[in-house]
Amino acid sequence: MEKRIVESDPLRNTPESFNTLSVDEIGDDHLFKGIATPMLPQAFLKTDEEKIASIAGHFKAIMETLGLDLSDDSLAGTPQRVAKMYVQEIFSGLDERNKPKIALFENKYRYGQMLVEKNITFYSNCEHHFVPIFGKVHVAYISSGKVIGLSKLNRIVNYFAKRPQVQERLTMQIAGEMESVLNTKDIAVLIDAKHLCVSSRGIKDDNSATITAYYGGRFSDDAVKNEFLNYLNLNTTYV
Ligand SMILES: [Zn+2]
Asked: Which GO terms describe its molecular function (predicted)?
């Protein structure tokens, strides 16, 4: 099947060798090819309503194949509910029209230190098993002259989380968007997450967490990176 990269690729790609692995070789490993979500050229030819109708039909077939009786009251509405949830909620971030519009402000306080937004809760789904990934995202940037409304950082995280994902790509997509919106390379992104495909099935390790990090520009300097990491360890619970 022909694939097309819809988004630009502002940061680096993963090594070419990843592209030659078969699905069986990749197995449960979370390898990925680049920072753009792989999309088909016809991804947006159908309206959302057409997508919901189509997915509902396919999901009904999956349930029936599993032997479920959809004439039961409790199951009858499930295909439609799942289809709406996919298109309008948990995978709505595939559609660039849902990308948050970001307004920037002049940095009139001349605040030149890093700004850290930590403990941004996110819910995503693993693209290999379609089960949840959830956890916390911590981001930071050093202003290049403009500042961003704090809630916009949460919106950027949530937009990219609402796609079938691998954590590495989610990290890079958030970093790439912050870099382009804030016009600075001085960006840090750290994701601490739990993958239900690891804890509830497969290896069934309920205690493991997955950490991914991106440090750009001045954050690749150890002192700046450590300052960021130290802020994450501060006790900032206020209740
Ligand atoms: Zn998975």
From this structure: GTP binding; GTP cyclohydrolase I activity; zinc ion binding
